[in-house]
Amino acid sequence: LAQTYRNWELVISDDCSTDGTAELLSVLVKQDPRIKLYHTAHNLGTAKNRHITIQYCTGDLIAHMDSDDILERWALEEMIRMFTAKPNVALFYSDFAQISRAGKIESYSPSPDFDPNKLHQHGWRHFGMYRRSVFDAIVGYNDNLAGGRFIARNSWGTSWADRGYFYMPYQVIQNTSMSSDFWTLSTVTNP
User: Fold this and answer.
1) Residue 125, exposed/middle/buried by CB under 10 A (0-12, 13-18, 19+)?
2) Which residue among 56, 64, 97, 101 is buried most deeply as judged by most CB within 10 Å?
3) Cα 142 from Cα 151, distance rounded (Å)
4) Does the predicted TM-score (pTM) go above 0.70?
5) Within its chain, how far is the Cα of 161 from the centroid?
6) Residue 84, SS3?
7) Which of 44, 75, 62 is closest to 139 using CA atoms?
């Protein structure tokens, strides 16, 4: 909450947590009007919950994090600086470090140099930010398909799959033995 960049909103969708998270968040919402808390009626899982949460976001830039991730105080400011300096870039992502309960860095993992042909291998790591316009244009979720599907635009062109889009079952994204972060975007134009 103590980011050096101050013009942010924190949108949280509590997915039926049972560990006291909702109660803690309720206190934080009262202390800071930039924090917005929503609750799901039943546990939706990561993909569907993110889909719902994005609908509540009002900013032009969106980032999402897992519940066990933290940011350095300057993280948002650095991302905003990069988006301002490079207005045609759709996504920035960061390196990450694993931190012990005592707050000591146990390992550090630099993000690989950008290679659009390898984005599917490393995703955006643990913290990334992207333009909402890009998300609205090329990525989303379709809960109406059997079991729900994550919709993504592929890099092989419109002659592949469904005019350049493919659909991945939520179960693939939710199963950590089958997948990890899938949020990878490069500069695009609206289809």
Assistant:
1) middle
2) 64
3) 7
4) no
5) 25
6) helix
7) 62
**HEC assignment per residue over 91-121:** EEECCEEEECCCCCEEEEECCCCCCCCCHHH
- Residue 47 near residue 174 (C-beta atoms within 8 A): yes
* Tens of pLDDT, residues 82-134: 999 988 887 777 777 788 888 888 887 776 665 555 554 444 556 778 888 87
**Among candidates 10, 113, 116, which has minimal Cα distance to 53?**
10
Residue type, 183: W
User: How many angstroms separate the CA atoms of 83 and 116, rounded?
Assistant: 18
Helix locations, the chain, DSSP H: 21-31, 46-56, 75-85, 119-122, 132-138, 170-174
Dihedrals phi, psi of 104, to nearest 5 degrees: -95, 140
Task: Decide if 173 contacts 147 (C-beta within 8 A).
Answer: no
Residue 185: pLDDT above 50?
Answer: no
**Among candidate residues 105, 123, 143, 108, the one with its CA nearest the CA of residue 186:** 123
